Structures are given as structure tokens and as C-alpha cells.
Amino acid sequence: MTTAPPKRRRAASVDVPNARDRLIKAAEDQVCEKGFSAGSIRTIASNAGVNSALIAYHFGSKEELFRIVFQNAIAPMNQQRTDNFMRLEKAGGYSVEDVLRGWIEPIFQPAF
What we know:
The protein contains 5 helices and no strands. The protein has helices at 19-34, 41-48, 53-59, 62-91, 96-104. The longest helix is centred in the C-terminal third of the chain and has 30 residues, at 62-91.
């Protein structure tokens, strides 16, 4: 009786993002290039180097994947807004212009 050699496992690398992260990055690129409606599951999966079924596995749907992409883009902006308002609060006195500036300026900072 012959036994099959043990399967080799690929060593995990810190430099190689996992499939979920690659899908998010590919979806970010797709949104930037073509927008949400033009982005296809197959193109995103192909650009991520994975099977398109992994989108459903990791996210449930294309919409959920894109929700995460937008959430990731908005999170730094909202954190900057929070930081701006905390600074204003610590300063004690602030004007309507200060509040508007604290709200609007983060919009013009790069998200990606």
C-alpha cells in the first residue's frame, strides 16, 4: 500500500494580503475607476486574483463589499472631524466659521 506524500502548505506571508483584503483593494480601485454600478464581481475578483465566489463568502454581496469600501474611505474623514471638534472644545471659544471649517476641511483630504 502506497501513501500519498503530505500536502505542502504555503507559508503565510505578512507582505501578501489575504483574499478578503485583496478584494477590498480591488473594489476600491474599481470604484475609483468606474464607479459602483460599472464595477463587476468578476472584474473585482479577477483583479484580486481570487474566485468570484469569495465575494459572497466574505461579504455576502457586491453591495456589502462596496459598503465596506465606502466605510473605509469615510472613517479617516470622520476621525479628523472628531479631532477637529475636540480641539475646538478644548480651546473653549469658537465661532460658526471654526465649526464649519472643522466639518468641511476633512472632505478635501485624500482618502486612499
